[in-house]
Amino acid sequence: MARILVSMPDKFLESIDKLADAEQRSRSELVREALRNYIRKSNNVLPKNAVNNAQILESLLD
Q1: Quick one: angle between helices 27-61 and 10-22, nearest 10?
Q2: Which tens digit of pLDDT belongs to each residue from 36-56?
Q3: Cβ pair 16, 27 in contact under 8 A
Q4: Ramachandran angles phi, psi of 2, nearest 5°
């Protein structure tokens, strides 16, 4: 598994660690899940935005 280095404010990291402890998971697993959810959400939003943007462009070209 690849490793990455991410910088974040200390207070934010403290919040992550508290949540990970409360859920009895590692910090890494919590961050992976958050990113998975973000990707899923982005995949659902982007096609809708593309359709909306295409409709706007069509109306401008008419």
Answers
A1: 110
A2: 998 888 777 667 777 787 788
A3: yes
A4: -75, 155
Whether residue 23 contacts residue 32, with contact meaning beta carbons closer than 8 Å, is answered with: no
Stated pTM of the model: 0.65
Q: Is the pLDDT of residue 60 over 80?
A: no
Decide: helix, strand or coil at residue 16: helix
CB-count exposure of residue 16 (10 Å: 0-12, 13-18, 19+): middle
Distance between CA 13 and CA 7 in Å, rounded? 9
Instruction: Report whether 16 contacts 30 (CB < 8 A).
Output: yes
